[in-house]
Design a protein that fits this description.
The chain has 294 residues and is of the alpha+beta class. The chain is 41% helix and 24% strand. Strands 1, 2, 3, 4, 5, 6, 7, 8, 9 and 10 form a 10-stranded antiparallel sheet that branches.
Length: 294
């Protein structure tokens, strides 16, 4: 499914030249705007996803003002000195354009969850939440220029070209450094966390291996081997341990008979519960309960 930006704005004084130019890539959308500005133009902007605003060109004696509140004085944005702003999801921003006749800007919206899955690691939440307003970076501007050119290209190149440029730009802006190499065959920390959280939350039902593989973007076979390399046990054994931990919580109290605990924790009957409990814990549920109460 194509990622659609979720943007709200209230603007005045702008006239788009030639219509919006937009390209979609995997979890990212890039918009290129050529805009004529009235004597005064401006507006309020807020988006449900993080985004980048990159000022590529401007004409006029004035400079756009970026403001954190409608009544603040704001700070000037310049296509040479301060062209780039990273705006986190949900952050309100106001912009005023006085004595500015024309601007060209590139807006890049992205889905942080999709990017995290593509990069096989979760993006640092702090980096996503911290705004970076009005800065300059030569590499980012070079990438932005190439992205803008590709958006305008009447014969677009392969999607991987624009996708790679845009992904590289986001990695640079968010300073996503290379993570230390992990042991061969193990899951990334974020993959393992997603899998174990899912198993714990759903341990009372039959969990298909395909469900866990889909969570981590791996094949069932690859996931199974990597999970065992990471934890020392198969996914089924991890789930069984989660169910037995639930059973232990119930055994601590005398309020629940063994037959009820067996049913509550997904076992077919008390005999099956006792057999599995003895195999994994080394004693029967009744003896374990008695030892805890002594």
């Amino acid at each position: 499914m194509t990622f659609q930006p979720r943007m709200q704005n209230r603007i005045e004084g702008f006239s788009v030249m030639g219509g919006l130019k937009r390209r979609y890539w995997n979890g990212m959308t890039a918009d290129l705007w050529d805009v004529e500005c009235a004597a005064y133009a401006g507006g309020h902007y807020v988006a449900r996803d993080p985004r980048l605003f990159i000022l590529l060109d401007q004409r006029g004696h004035g400079r756009p003002l970026v403001k954190l509140s409608p009544k603040s004085r704001g700070a000037p944005q310049d296509s040479n000195q301060s062209p780039i702003s990273y705006i986190p999801a949900g952050m309100d921003l106001w912009m005023d354009f006085a004595d500015v006749q024309y601007v060209r800007h590139l807006d890049i919206h992205f889905d942080a969850d999709i990017l995290g899955r593509r990069l096989m690691e979760e993006i640092d939440p702090k980096k996503l939440k911290d705004p970076q307003l009005l800065f300059s970076d030569q590499r980012v501007m070079a990438l932005a220029g190439l992205i803008a050119a590709e958006i305008c290209n009447p014969e677009p190149l392969h999607d991987l070209y624009g996708d790679g440029l845009t992904l590289a730009l986001l990695i640079d802006v968010l300073k996503m450094v290379k993570t230390p190499p992990r042991r061969r065959g193990t899951l990334a920390i974020s993959q393992l966390q997603r899998a174990t959280d899912f198993i714990t939350a759903n341990c009372m039902r039959n969990i298909r291996l395909q469900e866990l593989a889909d969570l981590t973007g791996l094949s069932p076979s690859h996931f199974s081997h990597s999970f065992k390399a990471s934890t020392g046990m198969a996914p089924h054994d991890w789930q069984m341990n989660a169910r037995l931990e639930r059973a232990k919580d119930l055994l601590v109290s005398d309020a629940y008979p063994l037959t009820e605990i067996a049913a509550e924790t997904g076992f077919s009957d008390q005999a099956h519960f006792t057999k599995v409990f003895r195999k994994h814990i080394g004693t029967t549920p009744a003896r374990w309960r008695k030892a805890k109460q002594e």
